[in-house]
Amino acid sequence: MKKFYQYTMILFAGVLGACSSMIVDSPYEDSFPTGFSTAEYMELHPELRILQIRDYVSNQNTLYEESQKALGVDVAPIKANDETSFLANNDVLKAIYTHPLMLGKTEADWNTYAANAASADAAAQKDAKIVQKDLLKYNFVGVADDWGALQAIPVDEVAISQQYLMFGKGHGWTYRKCRLDESNLPIRDPKVFVDENNVSNGVESEAEYKQYVDTGLYCYDEANGVDRIVKANENKKKGEVKQAQ
Q: E-assigned strands of 117-185?
């Protein structure tokens, strides 16, 4: 389930990345629910920005490598040296590792990684290399100031807003935070999934829940850490999410 969810997100990030020059005209604006804000939606679903950043870095690295190859330059040793230098800069690695829109880990997670990376133990080194694989997704090959380059990546607001229209809106993604006067709205919990045999099962995770068809509108109650129902889901067919009664 998680792999399918990740693939779906990557698919939308890739397709919508091509829409960055589009202007959101009035027909699109009319499709957004009242109170929709791209910045707020991105804050609620940081994975959209995370994938956008990774995609940007990957594209830039591809362009750099292709340009060097066109000049007859062997890119492999350049890339290897660049990655070694990148992984040796703990200040930048920690900033990436703990940034909420990059790897989003905690200080304790970083301390664990740092200890594993410095350890001679084979198991610890293996764990560190797994983390390093993720960190390298934020490395610009051929760029001296990776952190500065990451900070300068523009936010593609059109792509994020279009993701809501093309996927999030039909799959029950919370689209904004709840307002002060909405604290009494019904809570969307527990989430219930009806399988092909019409058997109700609790959905295992938020990532899994985001895959299913749900046309309701939901806000996030930040104070209480719950989603609230602004407009109830109208889809109650087999294989789709329905609200618990």
A: 176-177
pLDDT (tens digit per residue) in 112-163: 999 999 999 999 999 999 999 999 999 999 999 999 999 999 999 999 999 9
Is the Cβ–Cβ distance between 53 and 101 less than 8 Å?
A: yes
State the Cα–Cα distance between residues 15 and 23, nearest whole angstrom: 16
> d(Cα 237, Cα 215) in Å, to the nearest integer?
12
Alpha helical stretches, state H, 119-156: 122-135, 146-151
Each residue's pLDDT tens digit, 88-123: 999 999 999 999 999 999 999 999 999 999 999 999
DSSP tally for the chain: helices H, then strands E? 11, 6
On the 0-12 / 13-18 / 19+ scale of CB atoms within 10 A, 78 is middle
Helix axes 107-118, 122-135, angle to 10 degrees: 120
This prediction has a pTM of 0.74
